[in-house]
Design goal:
The protein is of the alpha+beta class and about 220 residues long. It contains seven helices and ten strands.
Amino acid sequence: MSGGNYKSVFDIIGPVMVGPSSSHTAGAVAIGQAAHKIFGEKLKKVTIDYYESFAKTHQGHGTDYAIIAGVLGMETDDLRVPRAVEIAQKQGIEVIFNEHEGTSPINHPNTAIITLENDTKKIKVSGCSIGGGTIEIRDLEVEGCHFTPLGPLPIMLCWTGGNDPVDIKAHLSHDNIQIRKESALSQAGGRYIHELDLDRMPHPKVLDQIKAVSSGLICL
């Protein structure tokens, strides 16, 4: 099957979900889940910035509760999804939604930029829903480092002590995984964050091997 960023017919049909729209609801959950995986800590505040189509339709299409559901780690078919904003607020999380005029900064009509923070940590994830519940992540700010992935998942973030993750790339190569794009940024203490755009998700055993040679690993 040839279909751009769709990997199977199920990506076009869309996932099993709670909500009215695969693009505006299921895709929104997936963008929220990506932010949830990266943040990985107790959350204090979430800010959602909408652009273009999302800015105009987020309330009617359930995008608000869908993104917050993903931020809380819920799946698309979780019956709690429509109550996600209420659940977050009961957990003491401040929730803010902003609508923006003009074009999306990541060049897609279904754009949501999610900022998650607590007293010691802040991240920003810029994602778009491209249809059928499929998403792209086109901009990331993590631990003071700014990355611009190609967009399609999977995207790997890993932390190492050097600027060239030779061992990690070797494990990916043994699993016949191609790296479509890679970048690395240095942090204090000689640590590096690496962002790798992959052609498919690594086998679980390969992920375990990569965890063993890195000080942190997140796979979206």
